Amino acid sequence: MSKASLVIIKSMGIGDLVILIANIHAISKSIDEPVTVLAQKSTQAIEILKHDPFVKEVIDLEKKGFFNIIKKIKSSNFQQSFIYSDSIRLYLIAKLAGIKNNFHYKFFSKEGKNFFRTAKDFTEKVLSIKVNTESKIYIDASAVLGSIKKFNILKEEKNIICGISASGPTKRWDIENYIKLFESINKNFPCKFFLAGGYYDKDLIKQVMDSSIGKKCISFENLKISETIPIIKACNFCISNDTGFAHISSSLGLKTLILFMDSPPAAYGAYNKNISIIIPSGETIESCGHNTRGKNKILFEDVLEKMIDFLG
After folding, report:
1. Which of 93, 99, 144, 218 has its CA 20 to 30 A from that of 202?
2. What is the pLDDT of residue 153?
């Protein structure tokens, strides 16, 4: 008998979704069939999970429209739901949609918790299994080959994904530092830099493209996430602020260096062995977190030394 399952994700960010993919896979493997994911559009779940064999379908979790969401999922006759949230609203949606078995975080419990460990502990407790937290994004191999050809991605070059944006200015290393970093790296290795940012990052991207290193750069600003994923997969490395592109890169197997300056690396950097971490001078992995405001204490020399070691 089918154990049709719904995985509900409240988090809005791409990075959060990517971290939770490991748990989605664990659930699917446990019940021996693909699951349906209910997630907000801002997570880009439809595009990121497009080729995932463990995901049957992605349904949009509208910010509003309580009864519309219930209507969307009720006809699927889900037997159980796994709610990665302490939200009563999401629990009621699942309950009123006729789902009998609803597993969820303890209500009003998630504040201040470690994001990936909370998800891991929840999944392991519900399913009585061990969860490997290293998420994996699946992709069409032919799309990767197409990207290699289209963007002339050569093995002789260091092809680097550059997550120059972030969800807010306090989480973003100054663009002047990135330009200086790219110029310095390019003196040591032949490089191609892929500027991972979107429409709202055009000013940042323009500053890089107008610099002396601009001729070595390719911008993602007009591409969909699904179009960037095969390009990322074709590259070797990623240097990024704590942003969705960093988490996508690490889950596609790239060696990924993430600069944490105003978010907790213990919660968002320790889940994947492909991720290396840089934190503000004077901080530790445990002390760095939300409201650290440490962007000006990320030392250029530390980042350059780490990148040279990365690429060598």
Report:
1. 144
2. 96
Report the alpha-carbon angle 291-293-298, nearest 5: 140
Q: Which fold has domain 141-311?
A: Rossmann fold (3.40.50)
Per-residue pLDDT reduced to its tens digit, 260-303:
999 999 999 999 999 999 999 999 999 999 999 999 999 999 99
Write the CA distances from 189 to 11, 196, 216, 257, integer angstroms.
38, 20, 12, 17
93 Cβ neighbours under 8 A, 6+ residues apart:
8, 66, 69, 70, 73
Range 5-127 has CATH code 3.40.50.2000: yes
Is residue 294 within 8 Å of residue 280, measured between CB atoms? yes
Please tell me whether the overall predicted TM-score, pTM, comes out greater than 0.90 for this model.
yes
Residues 6+ positions from 49 with CB-CB distance below 8 Å: 21, 24, 37, 55, 58
